[in-house]
Design brief:
Blueprint lengths: L5 E7 L4 H13 L2 E12 L1 H16 L3 E5 L3 H10 L10 E3 L9
Parallel strand pairs: 1-2, 2-3, 3-4
Helix pairs in contact: 1-2
Length: 103
């Protein structure tokens, strides 16, 4: 079973964190984390924490964690507000054409 990419859209809030966690765990179980941007406008830190944990877990397990380059600006704004490094510190930033639609 392949987990679909995490598709980030609109404004992700703390209340989305639980669902993101379940989707990220499914991706890790399938061997890679792929995060796509479908119009991400912003992300609150609680939801971003889930994505950061997925990136750390993937790295710890020797798995890749790819993030669409188009999602990085919204994520970077949230990271900057928390005085954290940019998204490239946590994710492999990939142009949309390089991110596989399935794992």
């Amino acid at each position: 079973m392949n987990a679909p990419p995490l598709c980030l859209t609109g404004m992700l809030r703390q209340s989305d964190a639980s669902n993101l966690r379940d989707l990220a765990l499914a991706q890790i179980e399938n061997g890679a984390v792929v995060i796509r941007d479908n119009g991400l406008e912003g992300i609150e830190f609680g939801a971003l924490q889930v994505l950061l944990c997925a990136a750390f877990d993937a790295d710890r397990l020797g798995l890749s964690c790819h993030l669409d380059a188009s999602a990085a600006p919204a994520i970077d704004r949230c990271l900057a507000a928390m005085h954290l490094p940019d998204a490239a510190t946590f994710f492999t930033i990939s142009p949309l054409t390089e991110v596989s639609p399935t794992l």
